[in-house]
Amino acid sequence: MGDAIPMRTLNLDVLRSFVAIHDTGSFRQAAASVHLSPSAVSLQIGKLEEQLGQRLLERNARRVELTEQGDVLLYQARKLLSLNDETVALFRGSTLTGGLVLAAAHDLGISLVPGLLRRLAERYPRIRVDVRLGASSDVQRGFSAEQSNVLLFNDVGEPAFPSQKIWSEPLVWLMARGGRASSHDPLPLAVAATGCAWREVALKALNASGRAYRIAYGSDTPMGQTAALRADLAVAALPLSLSLAHNELIEVPDTARLPALPQTHIRLSHDHSELASAVAAMAVELARTRQLPVTDPASAG
Length: 301
What we know:
Elements: H1 12-24, H2 27-34, H3 38-52, E1 57-59, E2 64-66, H4 68-92, E3 98-105, H5 106-111, H6 113-123, E4 127-134, H7 136-144, E5 150-155, E6 164-176, E7 187-192, H8 197-209, E8 213-219, H9 222-230, E9 236-239, H10 240-245, E10 249-251, E11 263-270, H11 274-289
Parallel strand pairs: 3-4, 3-5, 7-8
Antiparallel strand pairs: 1-2, 5-11, 6-9, 6-10, 6-11
């Protein structure tokens, strides 16, 4: 017999695992999201690389990264999976229809909402979602005024109304790696707009400690704040995960004697309509597949 003909049909379950690795940044978290063991996912990717004759992933100390060929495959994989899910939905899809308003804090519009919208489109292709972003205090006021159906917001204390905590992590002082901003007096700060929970708790902590500071840079999103940090023009109170995502950012050293900061939480509220409940459940599911600390879905934070 001659050489075996390479298999020409890609396995969609393997592609789903591949996309999950990119979206979560690790084999362990991807395995949880597709309900397989990490070793099974690793075996899937090995066979996929063998089938395509290309190396698709590179591991480093922080997360798994795509190779150039992996980046090409990611685009194709998303198209194939989307077409598959759309086709299945035509025959077995949810009967949920209609629209709702999803309100979220600015930073969540970058970090959490895109993944949530992608999953919603796959599972509930007939619904329409209008996204509104703003400062945490603004979107909370809008939800209280019944201007939105689902709310995702940041909080560092007890919420003003019933909500569910779906993610917690430390709030820390960040600066540029190798920078000197933390040694300046008064301390230069990069802050978000008034109404941001992180801004308020940072200023309160500095005032309580007696540390002199000046607001050097302002932005309505963490992206603007991190730009000032990377330029070594200021320090900022931001979630620890930002230092993990940006190698050029580090925690301000203890020698700077900055006050301790509390944990920051992502909280979820909704109006309990059928559509909003489905979206809320999807947000909790997304948090769980990333293996974040999540409270019981029926509880209120």
